[in-house]
């Protein structure tokens, strides 16, 4: 036992006052643009022409470019994590622990302007190998468009932990050794990616009667991840653009207890926005900066939990086709996507049924995300409607 291990303090008393209460957050200033959608699917490595090619989209049921369902999180400031990070816990950092989505039906098109309502739901503290006492807290974000229609409801899980304990234990340094890739393996990955792209259902959604429990979906590879690809993910989120959002309500995020090296300089950002950027200065800098990654207990740069959720939604949407619609997903994130690692998405049909109320077929898929070593990065069910 080290000195840190002998006396781990994790005081969540300041969190209690927020349980069940609304919280503030950021809102985007302008409506969604076609370029926002195109930038998003590029950042998420999702080459579906519905979302970037106006000619292909015009021939679809939508008649024009439409955002993927995963884009919903891009309309938020802080990718859904904000309402799950409340209360001051000194010396802590956070990583995304999972998302649960309920999609109501309306799709997002260029010209739409979404507004978010947020509240802190609840939390629990559990012992983890990674960092000892760790808080798993949940926040709710409701996405409403300019017509007052609810687009989606999201419950996000924030994993808050003592950074010094995580550094001391070095769990991920041991669990995630860097892989060396050769040209042959990279060529195989590229061929697998192309095969997955070509498997996209498009206008021909799977027929419910053709599906069987146990049926496997084609594997989707993403990566190997690089620091440039991780930075591109971050820049796919609209709120990372200078001046694109405004804050309303109390600013609870600044009081979370971040390490000094991982905090923003909001006063300095009034003169130089880079100081409040998040990636260059702030809580997200560990994603692409090895020194700051190690400061919070990670061995090197790593991906964003919110992006992992988007990868899952895009993966299922590509299989479900242009007329398919994801109703619900509940995916837990268990292992980061580290710089140099490969991400592999697989899924299995676990149930099929016809919903008389909806008048559609409903399929449940169990999606599993692993890396090249077989470590499970994320896992959970996704329920999708298929047209008759």
Could you outline the blueprint of secondary structure elements for this entry?
Layout: H1 3-6, E1 25-28, H2 34-43, H3 54-58, E2 92-103, E3 115-128, E4 132-144, E5 150-162, H4 163-169, H5 171-175, H6 183-198, E6 220-222, H7 227-235, E7 245-248, H8 266-269, H9 290-295, H10 305-320, E8 325-333, E9 343-355, E10 360-371, E11 376-386
Protein traits:
388 residues; alpha+beta; Thiol Ester Dehydrase, Chain A; nine-stranded antiparallel β-sheet; two-stranded antiparallel sheet; 10 helices
Describe the structure.
The chain is of the alpha+beta class. It has one domain: Thiol Ester Dehydrase, Chain A. It contains ten helices and eleven strands. The chain has helices spanning 3-6, 34-43, 54-58, 163-169, 171-175, 183-198, 227-235, 266-269, 290-295, 305-320, and strands at 25-28, 92-103, 115-128, 132-144, 150-162, 220-222, 245-248, 325-333, 343-355, 360-371, 376-386. The protein has a nine-stranded antiparallel sheet. The longest helix has 16 residues, at 183-198. The model has no long low-confidence stretch (mean pLDDT 94).
Which architecture would the CATH scheme give at its second level? Answer: Roll
Beta strand %:
25-35%
**Gross morphology:** globular
What's the SSE pattern?
HEHHEEEEHHHEHEHHHEEEE
Which CATH top level class fits? Answer: Alpha Beta
Q: What's the Cα radius of gyration?
A: 21 Å
* Distance between the amino and carboxyl termini: 61 Å
Which fold name corresponds to the CATH topology?
Thiol Ester Dehydrase, Chain A
| Contiguous runs where pLDDT drops below 50 for at least 5 residues | none
Average pLDDT number: 94
Give the full name of the CATH homologous superfamily.
Hotdog Thioesterase
């Amino acid at each position: 036992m080290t000195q840190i291990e002998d006396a781990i303090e994790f005081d969540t008393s300041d969190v209690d006052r927020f349980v069940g209460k609304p919280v503030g957050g950021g809102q985007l200033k302008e409506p969604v643009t076609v370029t926002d959608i195109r930038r998003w699917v590029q950042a998420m490595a999702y080459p579906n022409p519905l979302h970037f090619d106006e000619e292909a989209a015009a021939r679809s049921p939508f008649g024009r470019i439409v955002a993927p369902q995963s884009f919903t999180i891009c309309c938020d400031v802080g990718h859904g994590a904000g309402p799950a990070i409340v209360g001051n816990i000194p010396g802590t950092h956070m990583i995304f622990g999972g998302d649960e989505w309920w999609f109501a039906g309306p799709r997002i098109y260029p010209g739409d302007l979404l507004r978010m309502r947020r509240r802190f739901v609840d939390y629990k503290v559990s012992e983890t190998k990674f960092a000892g006492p760790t808080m798993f807290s949940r926040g709710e974000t409701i996405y409403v468009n300019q017509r007052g229609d609810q687009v989606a409801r999201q419950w996000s899980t924030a994993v808050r932990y003592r950074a010094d304990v995580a550094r001391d234990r070095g769990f991920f340094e041991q669990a995630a050794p860097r892989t060396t890739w050769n040209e042959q393996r990279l060529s195989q990955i590229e061929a697998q990616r192309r095969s997955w792209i070509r498997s996209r259902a498009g206008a021909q959604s799977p027929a419910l009667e053709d599906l069987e429990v146990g049926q496997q979906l084609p594997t989707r590879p993403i990566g190997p991840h690089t620091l440039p690809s991780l930075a591109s993910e971050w820049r796919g989120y609209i709120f990372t653009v200078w001046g694109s959002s405004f804050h309303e309500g109390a600013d609870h995020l600044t009081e979370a207890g971040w390490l000094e090296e991982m905090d923003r300089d909001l006063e300095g950002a009034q003169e130089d926005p880079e100081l409040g950027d998040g990636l260059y200065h702030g809580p997200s800098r560990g994603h692409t900066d090895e020194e700051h990654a190690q400061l919070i207990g990670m061995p090197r740069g790593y991906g964003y939990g919110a992006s992992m959720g988007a990868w899952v939604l895009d993966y299922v949407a590509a299989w479900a086709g242009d007329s398919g619609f994801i109703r619900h997903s509940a995916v837990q994130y268990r292992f980061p996507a580290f710089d140099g690692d490969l991400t592999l998405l697989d899924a299995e049909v676990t149930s099929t049924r016809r919903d008389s109320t909806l008048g559609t077929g409903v399929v449940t898929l169990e999606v599993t995300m692993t890396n090249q070593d077989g470590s499970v990065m994320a896992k959970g069910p996704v329920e999708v409607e298929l047209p008759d």
